[in-house]
Write a structure and sequence with these properties.
Blueprint (H helix, E strand, L loop, with lengths): L1 H26 L5 H8 L3 H18 L4 H5 L3 H20 L9 H25 L10 H4 L1 H17 L9 H40 L3
Helix pairs in contact: 1-2, 1-3, 1-6, 3-5, 3-6, 5-6, 5-9, 8-9
């Protein structure tokens, strides 16, 4: 069941990523493939969805490879779970109010912010071994989102483009943006601790099962 679940989830995830790239190429960069790729990878949403798609693909497609083994680790899969949870939460509490996607853009957005996160969390709850996580792993999980925010600030300072309003220095100033970054980092850390707690609880339940 795990294999088929991950194959279907991977197909859905890669479809949304490819669709989003196509939409950027067609409507935003006027056919410039390189510019479209840069634009796609500028969003934490897309980077997180790519990680989710890789985590749903490599453990069954290349289980003996280093990347397959890496994306099979409970710690790695939990880190990705925290990223995609924040992606979904921020979108539906903040960003969704700022625009009204239609047509294929709505399809891509729905998969990236709702369907893919839901499928990944089901996978994490059902298929990832429990009881192995440690609190000391949480700071390591923060490296990716913190690095992304600093990259966005540097990229924005050079190009003038900020992918998210809460990181837009030209609108908010550095003081407010750095405060937003601190709040987001704290949210990632808190969520990481919650996931470790759930992992330990479920691990204890599994350990008490007979046989």
């Amino acid at each position: 069941m795990q294999l088929w679940f991950r194959m279907v989830a991977a197909a859905i995830g890669w479809f949304a990523i490819a669709l989003q790239y196509y939409l950027i190429v067609r409507y935003k960069t006027e056919g410039d493939l390189v510019e479209a790729a840069i634009d796609l990878l500028a969003f934490f949403t897309m980077l997180s969805n790519i990680l989710v798609a890789l985590a749903m693909t490599l453990p069954w497609l290349a289980p003996e490879s280093r990347l397959g083994a890496f994306f099979s680790r409970p710690s790695v899969r939990t880190a990705i779970a925290s990223y995609i949870i924040v992606v979904s939460a921020v979108y539906y509490t903040i960003l969704r109010k700022l625009w009204n996607p239609e047509g294929w853009q709505l399809v891509a957005d729905t998969i990236e912010h709702c369907v893919a996160p839901a499928l990944y969390l089901i996978d994490w709850l059902v298929f990832v071994p429990k009881g192995t996580l440690r609190i000391k792993s949480v700071p390591w999980w923060l490296i990716f989102p913190v690095s992304y925010t600093f990259y966005s600030l540097i990229h924005g300072a050079v190009t003038g483009y900020y992918p998210y309003l809460f990181l837009d220095v030209t609108q908010l100033g550095y003081d407010r943006v750095l405060l937003n970054m601190a709040v987001l980092t704290a949210a990632f850390a808190f969520l990481g601790l919650v996931l470790v707690g759930i992992d330990r609880m479920l691990g204890a339940v599994e350990a008490r099962k007979p046989g």
